[in-house]
Input
Amino acid sequence: MIDIKFLRENPDVVRASQKGRGENVELVDQILAIDEKKRAAVTEFEALRQEQNALSKSVGAAKGDEKTALLENAKALADKVKAADSKRAEVEEQTKQLVLQLSNLLDTEAPIGGEEDFVTIEHVGTPRDFGKDGFEPRDHVELGKLLGAIDTERGAKVAGSRSYYLTGVGALLEFALVNYAIQSALKNGFTPVIPPVLVNPAAMEGTGFLGQAAENVYRIEKDDVYLVGTSEVPLAAMHMDETLPADKLPLRYAGYSSCFRREAGTYGKDTRGIIRVHQFDKVEMFTFCKPEDAKAEHARLLQWEKDFLIAMEIPFRVIDVASGDLGSSATRKFDIEAWIPTQGAYREVTSTSNCTEFQARRLNIRYKDSEGTKALATLNGTLVAIPRMIVAILENHQNADGTVNVPAALQPFLGVKKFELA
RNA sequence: GGAGGAUUCGCAUAGCGGCCGAGUGCGCACGCUUGGAAAGCGUGUAUAGGGCAACCUAUCGAGGGUUCAAAUCCCUCAUCCUCCGCCA
Output
């Protein structure tokens, strides 16, 4: 949620941001207009209320005829107050609904444009030359079968498309990745968290996932709860309606959870394998910090993501996501894309967003220092999303015979240097 | 799933339909006292919105209702506790 005071004072900045995202610019003027109406309604209600409070007091003190006369006045006034109050409530609700439609202000450094207009910040590592190695790489589905690690056929039989079983070394690989991720998160000062994945509407709404992203969310209607698509939701909502002491900041959580995504509107996209699935496990980093520290924290989250990829010995690139492709909460977003040999392309494996005060304001999370209470900033970043990391590891580290070398960083967790054929 | 009880200012509690935005204790901050500390004494101690300000308005789990007037009465919901049932 954008600060309404900021919008009043800097409407041009908000207009420019909306334009950069390719979103409704007129919304800004609609909000300015209704905000004025709202303040008038509030003032009117408060004036009437003040009168009523005073009158009520005198009714209590009065006696006899005097009281009867005062009561009559008071009754008439009570109706006016009620009318003014419902008008106020109505305009306030309308204002809020409009303000909630605004996306976060764009970072001025974020590239402008659509999905294709990202800026590549750097490349790390070099894609392997399989020609030089003398064999044609197998894709992760094939390797998963050879190793007895991934079973998409039975996944489909039991749970439908985009479902899978991780078996044997596939399952072990998940445990190793999670353990390595949590271990590095601990080293970097994160508190490990296993959050609820079934959350109430307030949590979903507050984190901004019931807006444009709503159709990708599973809802359990009978109990009015949602399955989260990322632990960002329960981690952000963890401190909903709380005021945190300034000396506790930054607060860093590493959440490990299953993630559920309907993947509506992606028919035909990534149908093979486990690149795009309905359910997967992920370790997510989440930070609450002072707004002035958010930019530096964003750089740190990105660095930790890079460190993970480097430890997995996978070539990747970092992109600065363009304005039109940012989530509504993000002021700026960096994605890391890993090299996937059989696709001859870089594919997204992690993503980190700076949400500045936008998300915290929606969730009513603030911090308190000697100067008072203020909105704080929230940031999130993927440490590891299991299936895509498994894809990257299997494909990049495969040998001609279908066996796969285990990155050194994972060897202590797996006890082997190589995955053998099943 | 059933039966009871609870939810008030950081914590613990008091609260008669008007004198309650709300008392007390603890905690915390500042001051006095002291050679220094403790104790003692005094003052202060929520959030949001509006106003240059004095100040005004709202908030006693949430939402409705009754009333001139609701922390207080009524209804719905949420959460927590106790007991019973079921259960990984």
In short: The first helix of chain A runs from residue 4 to 9. The radius of gyration of chain A is 27 Å.
